[in-house]
Amino acid sequence: MEKQVITSQQNKLIKHIKALENKKNRKIHGQFMIEGIRIIEECILHEVPIEYLLYTEDVEAVQGGRELLERGIKKYKSYEVEKKLFDTLSHTETPQGIMAVVNIQDHSLDTLNIKEDAFFLILDRIQDPGNMGTIIRTAEAAGADAVVLTKGCVDPYNNKTIRATMGALFHIPIIEVNDNNTWIEVLKKGHVKLIASNLNTDYDYTKVDYRGKIAIIIGNEANGIDENLLHYVDLSIKIPILGKIESLNASTAAAILIYKAVEHKL
Hints:
The protein is α/β, with parallel strands linked by helices. The chain has two domains: 92 residues, CATH 3.30.1330.30; 157 residues, SPOUT methyltransferase, trefoil knot domain (Alpha/beta knot), CATH 3.40.1280.10. It contains ten helices and eleven strands. Strands 8-7-6-10-9-11 form a six-stranded parallel beta sheet. A five-stranded mixed beta sheet has the order 1-4-3-5-2. Helix 6 runs parallel beside helix 10. 35% of the residues are buried.
């Protein structure tokens, strides 16, 4: 039988992937698109729920591409796409010839495991995709138990965010909330200490006891943490600035605080 290759932009799978470029549609379908050898390998290795694969013959010329495609075709619905059409779907300058539609994993505050040494990260209105992805990657690397995103944060399933996570979002619960009262209530009931990164304090981050149940809050790149949230925190801390700049990049500050928080576990 002759191999079928998708060539039309009117194909329902192509239209579906194009629709997933929009945050609203990602929410409606509970899906997002990923592309590239490395991140799809990560998905297959850790059995992330892939809905289907799209590929071009170019993938076989990429290191590891042939093997990945063979594994993918055996495990998931897979469709070959004309290269020119595939390139219109890609968000990279040099497409590797393979992409996948992935189902968003369902995580909520109801399933949060507040163990004795729980460590959560709260991101308050982080808006840069690169910062968001890098912080999620760092949180996962340090063994954080979950990342909570407040209303106003950039979509974690944005293409730029996904690339910046380097696959980390598949290994750590990402919980999006619309109301700050909900996550505050859950963490307070669980006796989790809320620690805010805040420029308007003199309390040095190195002086804090990070043992026990904690949640570190990182604020918006331009405006910091919502003033209303600061009423609920147990402690505000600051990374000293020794030079002439006013502050650190949000992802840099987050990395410093995240690893300081888990230092006692190393």
